[in-house]
Amino acid sequence: TEPNEQLSPPVFVKFLESGAAKEGTTHQLHCKVEGVPLPLVQWFKNDTCIDNSPDYVITYNNGDAVLRFEEVFLEDQAEYTCKATNPVGTDTCKARLTVEPLEPTESPSFVTPLSNVMARAGQKIKLECEVTGLPTPELSWIQNGKPVKETRDLKTQYDEDFKATLTITEAFPKDAGVYVVSAKNIAGEATSSCNVSVKGRLPTETSDSELASDMEPIKPAIQLPLKDICVFEGKKVRLDCVIIGQPEP
Questions:
Q1: How far is residue 7 from each of residues 4, 88, 201, 220, measured CA to CA in Å?
Q2: Fewest CB atoms within 10 Å of the CB: 128, 157, 158, 236?
């Protein structure tokens, strides 16, 4: 009878090599593994398995493992791992792929941030800021932690001059709170925030002697309370709250 085959754990005899690829070109990562029985391999991008992803062409033949990029995108910049496994062991090798963009990139930056706004009920509110970035950032607005939805009375705009606006044609108390605009592109992300407070209407029927101070007084109240926050030492921090009352506290 033939002797039993001697089992051996996976061992990489050719390792993945870190390197750079230009955006839009083809690229491949190659390694070779040995072991008895022949190991099975898995590929990971930043610890996420990509074996079933349609974005890559994966081949494995007699220990030769290849991960091929038919077209390299900026999002492909990451650390890639090949993991080989058989019944008696596991081995891994890693490499980093750096992607060189076709055009220069610049992370978003708020040249002019949002400013706090105070309005009477029924008045128009306009939040404005100026944000730059390459490629042009995508903007998203949040009010009190929830995404802002465009309606007939609420519109957002981002024009070619890098000016972003949020316009409310007629303000109501529900429109008050903390507004945050986020600008994001492939190079990074930046945010700007402001407080919006909406006071009650002025009396519709007033004599010449009556002033706004004649409005019925309202006890101060916290409309949006402070929130606990954790920051790294040495970093900027901003605490926001919204207080209402008549006259203004």
A1: 9, 7, 84, 78
A2: 236
| CA gap 206, 213 in Å, rounded | 12
Q: What is the pLDDT of residues 99-120, one digit of tens each?
A: 988 877 888 999 999 999 999 9
Q: Which two tokens stand for residue 191?
A: 């945010």
Judge residue 133's burial from the number of C-beta atoms within 10 Å of its C-beta, 0-12 exposed, 13-18 middle, 19 or more buried.
buried
CA–CA separation, 138 vs 205, rounded Å? 46
Cβ atoms of residues 86 and 38 within 8 Å = yes
Residue 127: partners with Cβ closer than 8 Å, 6 or more residues away: 114, 115, 117, 165, 166, 167, 179, 181, 194, 196
Instruction: pLDDT band for 125, please (50, 70, 90 cuts).
Output: very high
List residues bridging with 198 in a β-sheet.
Answer: 119
Look-up of token digits 């494995």 = 60
